[in-house]
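User: I'm new to structure prediction. If I give you an amino acid sequence, what do you actually give back? Let's try with this one:
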Amino acid sequence: MEVSLARRSALQAFTALAAVALGCSRVTATPDAKMAPLLAPADLAARLSDIKAGKIAVLHIGPRLLFQRERIPGSRWVGETGTSDGLAAFEAAVKAIPADVEIVAYCGCCPVANCPNVFPARQALGARPRATVLDLPSNFRTDWAKKGYAIEQG
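Assistant: Good question. You get back a string of structure tokens that encode the predicted 3D arrangement of the chain. For your 154 residues, that looks like this:
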């Protein structure tokens, strides 16, 4: 039991340090900005079959290391939208997705309200119909994996 507690504490410390190292800081939108809405994790988790069927394209917009560790099944990494190269890759990926396919972008490195990758993605998606950003109030591990929603690893 002590080993498990020690591992949990180490993981929490690592996650906190990673958030700082990744540059998570409060990012706010201007009131007149048109941004993609947020989507509750439970709503996406209930539609995993739509991802598999190609009706929803899930784009990971955070650090590649997090994507490689665990991710939403069927999602693909496009780059960190907090960087100019990552944002350009995201915009190109979005343009290549047919209009009838729903888009869900997510990061999960830190709280969605502070994430340096979420704000640029929400702006880039703008008012595009059927495009949302996954609302992860804490991070991917807490708001998706620990809730028992399906994940892919590796």
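You can read the tokens as a compact description of the fold. Here is one thing that stands out. Residues 1-6, 8-22, 25-32 have pLDDT under 50 and may be disordered.
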